[in-house]
Every structure is written in structure tokens, then in C-alpha cells.
Amino acid sequence: MPSYTLLVLLVAFERVIELNTARRNAAWSFDRGGREHGSGHYPVMVLLHTGLLAGCLAEVHYGGRPFVAALGWPMLALVVASQILRWWCVFALGPRWNTRVIVVPDLPLVDRGPYRLMRHPNYLAVVVEGAALPLVHGAWITALCFTLANAQLLKVRLRCENAALGLAPA
Asked: What is the rounded distance in angstroms from the CA atom of residue 44 to the CA atom of residue 27?
């Protein structure tokens, strides 16, 4: 369990780095006339992602979830892969990457890095991590709850983001 707690704390630390990057990038975008879209769902997203981390720890510590190597190691590999994909997205978007939906007018869509392969690769990273991180140590209730709640949030988020980017009707 101490190793799993460390893993979850490392992911939480990564989130802090992400939020600092997003704050810096938001300033860059706003300085260039960027406009935020869908700010109403952002607090829900923050709560959901915080709940994922807390749920992982609570379920493992209080639910007595054992580490099952046959599940845990592959899930750990998926967690690492999701982090690599997430940071590939961050670097591909550069100062345009954000945890919020902020669009700078007249900038073309990014078509490099993972964005040459799919429209929203960062959300793939979120989906994979949201299922895999809890399952590293058997926290299946947290994995299920996050996955179901995140699916609902992603419906809203993708609709918002696609409309803001001019990819779909509002």
C-alpha cells in the first residue's frame, strides 16, 4: 500500500504541475485575445479529478483492496502510458494547451504530435488513466464511478470544445 499511495501522490503532484502550466498558458492566451468557453463545467471537472485521487486512496486503504499483480502491473503500464500521452499533448499544443477551453482567435488547429492522429488525444489519456489508476491496486468501485461520471462530463466537454474550435455546432 505505501507504494500505491506514493503513486497516487505522484499523480497528484503531476496535476499541480499541470495546473501551473495551464495558468501560465491561460495568461498567454488571454494576452492574445483568447476567450474562455464552458467555464461552468470546469469546477465539476476539478471535483471529479480530485475525487478520483481521493477515491483511489480511500478505497484501497479502507476497502482493503489487495494488489493483484496480474491486474496491477498492466494497469500501471497504462497509467504511465497515459501520462506520456498527456505530456505529448501538452508539448504539441505548447502555450495553447490548457485545462480550460480557451480559444485564441485566428490560430489554426494544431495538427502535429498526437493531434495528427486524433482530434482529442488528451481525453484518451484521461479515460485510460481514470480506469487504470484505481485498478493498479484493485479499487474497482473508484474506477467504475469515475469512468461513468467522466463519460457524462466528456459529453459536455467535447461538445463545448468542438463548438469553441468551430468543429461542430454549439
From this structure: 22
Q: How many CB atoms lie within 10 A of CB 163?
A: 16
Summarize pLDDT for 92-131 with one digit per residue, the tens. 999 999 999 999 998 999 999 999 999 999 999 999 999 9
The residue type of 69 is A
**Pair 122, 88: CB distance under 8 Å:** no
Q: What is the mean pLDDT of the chain?
A: 95
User: What pLDDT, in 10s, does the model give residues 95-104?
Assistant: 999 999 999 9
The DSSP secondary-structure symbol of 106 reads: T
Residue 131 and residue 147 in contact, taking contact as beta carbons nearer than 8 Å: yes
* Spatial CB neighbours of 52, under 8 Å, sequence gap ≥ 6: 130, 133, 134, 142, 146
What pLDDT does residue 170 have?
46
**C-beta of residue 36 within 8 angstroms of C-beta of residue 159:** no
Burial class (CB in 10 A: 0-12, 13-18, 19+), 49: buried
Q: At 113, phi and psi to the nearest 5?
A: 60, -140
Nearest to 71 by CA among 126, 130, 133, 127: 133
- Let me know: does 25 contact 96? Beta carbons within 8 Å: yes
